[in-house]
Amino acid sequence: MSAPIPGTSPVATAAPDAGSHAPTDPGVPGPVRRRNLLLRMGPSILLPAGILAVLVAAAAIPGLLAPSGPLTMEPAVAFTPPGPGHWFGTDESGRDVFSRVIHGARSSLLIGVLATVIGLGVATVLGALAGLGTRTLDFGVSRFLEVLFAFPGLLLALLVITILGPGVVTTTVAVGLSTAPGYARMIRSQVLSVRRSGYVEASLVQGRSRWFIIRHHILPNVAAPLLVLATLGIGQAIVWASSLSFLGLGATPPDPEWGSMLSNGRLYIGNAWWLTVFPGLCIVLSAATTTLLGHGVQRHLKENR
To answer: What are the tens digits of pLDDT across the range 74-107?
Structure first.
């Protein structure tokens, strides 16, 4: 697809096909447009998006889904296996595991989302500085990212926690900072690719300001990859945050967080397998869902480019 001539509107340069009924055609009824959009997205996006919607609902309104509170104890029914009364069984204090898993979705998803926002925010600044700055600035930022890359992600997160101390907030910041170097290199590469494109060079010849080029060319072309990175990053952040909580460096018992529940359940894995299986399945499900959704969105954007 050829790029539009700088300074002209894409609508003005594209000749509409009188015989086609595109989904954006105002003459097509709204239900038809929505159905066409759903058909274009396909199950690779709709299925993980539906599962993610259920997880978000559990995080937003846990009281409507959970039969009891996450800290409600009934010692008389401790270590009850999964069944009609307690779908996921109970723990050593008689707390309903299903209720704790539902309430734990809020902590785990919130940590994953906030850590991804922190990581992408830092990465966007570093990637933009490297891609839009001078060669000296690009060299300095690139060498700094290489130093951070020398540390594995979890090791870098452990280093941040060692300096700042354990806790949920620290874990969120640590996971976000540990994911930033990888995102920054991707954003830098995308910015450099757009910066060297023909339409950016044409804008420079026309005397457009740097801010105009950033707003009209750089940001729109970097936004789509950022959306994919954010979707993929949430699952990774949930797994890393759960790992740190499992080690006792994030959320701690009796907080209903999936990694913390895994850590507490491993003590009874011999006679109460459900204490680790169900929180672990939730971690795997959330990570797999966001990863599949990210790949589906990426494939959809490539096909419709």
So the answer is: 999 999 999 988 999 999 999 999 999 999 999 8
pTM, full prediction: 0.77
- Decide: 120 and 184 in contact? Cβ < 8 Å: no
- What's the rounded Cα separation, in Å, for the pair 16 and 1? 16
DSSP 166-230: SSHHHHHHHHHHHHHHHHHHHHHHHHHHHHTSHHHHHHHHTT--HHHHIIIIIHHHHHHHHHHHH
Query: Residue 100 is inside which H or E element, if any?
Result: helix 97-132
Secondary structure of residue 90 in the 3-state scheme: strand
- What is the Cα–Cα distance from 86 to 194, expressed in whole angstroms? 55
The per-residue b/e assignment along 211-245, b for 16 or more CB within 10 angstroms, e otherwise, is eebbeebbeebbeebbebbbbbbbbbbbbbbbbbb
pLDDT of residue 283 exceeding 80: yes
β-partners of residue 90 are: 96
| Residues in Cβ contact with 22 at an 8 Å cutoff, skipping those fewer than 6 apart | 28
- Cα separation, 197 vs 204, in Å, equals 11
DSSP at 15: P
Q: What does the buried/exposed string (b/e) look like for 263-291 if buried means 16 or more CB atoms within 10 Å of the residue's CB?
A: bbbeeeeeebebbbbbbbebbebbbebbb
Q: What are phi and psi of 300, to 5 degrees?
A: -65, -40
- Beta partners for 96? 90
**For the chain, what is the radius of gyration of the CA atoms?**
24
Count Cβ atoms below 10 Å from residue 302 Cβ, excluding itself.
9
Q: What angle do CA 153, 290, 114 make, to 5 degrees?
A: 60
Biggest CA pair distance of the chain: 79
The confidence score (pLDDT) of residue 11 equals: 39
Q: How far apart are CA 165 and CA 102, in angstroms?
A: 28
Give the Cβ contact number of residue 53 at 10 Å.
Answer: 11
3-state class of 68 per DSSP? coil
